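Re: beginner question about structure tokens

> Can someone show what the tokenized structure looks like for a real chain? I only ever see the sequence side.

Sure, here's an example I had lying around. Input first:
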Amino acid sequence: MANRAVHEPIAFEQPLRDLPQEREQQVEVGPSRPVVSAADQRFNTAAQQPHRSLIAISNRGATVNSDQPKTGGLSAALECVVERSGAVWVGFSEHLGDGNKQQVPLVQRGKGQIGWLDGPAADYPRYYQGFANSILWPALHSLPDRISGSEVDYKSYRDVNAFMARAVSEL
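And the corresponding structure tokens:
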């Protein structure tokens, strides 16, 4: 990188008060009006179902009994979010099924809801052990020497994600 004769501060190095304003700010008396884009309007009018602020999807579901200790960071973080915000969390149950589309049974948990699906038995082992735990987990934890997997694992990962997408699409 060539040295510059005069150092020109980059935007994130400058205090906000020194940055140029991109548009004039108008001061109005009274409550502010929300800014809604055309895309937002199309999305909101297309979805006549109740608005859900967040739908979290994971391979591990919440604990069935809210009095049980939370297992892992995902449960500890998401159960509180669901209970307080009205979010929905869908994860796999402890059971395997035939892989046919399922309705997601939702259980009220505080302001939110939690649902469980039975993972498809034919693909779940390669999805979970083969791809999620043998490729994604080591890759996302900076352990490239522990990555192992196959194209079959990747196909199972895609098939299980497609199954989950079909199941939650009606939410």
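Each token stands for a local structural state, so reading them left to right follows the chain. The two ends are 51 Å apart (CA to CA).
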